[in-house]
Write a structure and sequence with these properties.
NadD/NMNAT; Rossmann fold; 3-stranded parallel sheet; 40% helix; alpha/beta
Length: 144
Amino acid sequence: AHKRENDISDPEHRYLMTVLATSNNKFFEVSKVELNRPGPSYSIDTVKEFLKKYNHGVKIFFITGADAFLEVDSWYKSEELIKLCQFVAATRPGYDLDKLDKKFKKILKIMEIPALSISSTDIRRRIKGGRNIKYLVPHEVEKY
């Protein structure tokens, strides 16, 4: 099932927190392409726009959580999307890689991130409950 609207942070807030979290890393560029697009925004459209912007001279790495990737077959134009970019699934410690179908394992790179033992949903719950998020997000995002 896809996330309900009220389970997701406001897009402008997510954008600003991403800018803050990556501001000290020259290898990241944060884009508003999806925020500026009218109507529904699909990953395939974003990837195509980046390929066009960079004259197909780049390799796009689509980094997402492993659980989100399990639903890739339900994404708009998923087969085309899989051909246009390299998917990287971020996993939390102890994630059961057997959940990924064999066909996915052929097209997917796995990136275990030890620090991701807490989810964005957990962070939002902590904020709503007035609990501390120090050390769970970059300092700049915590201040935001």
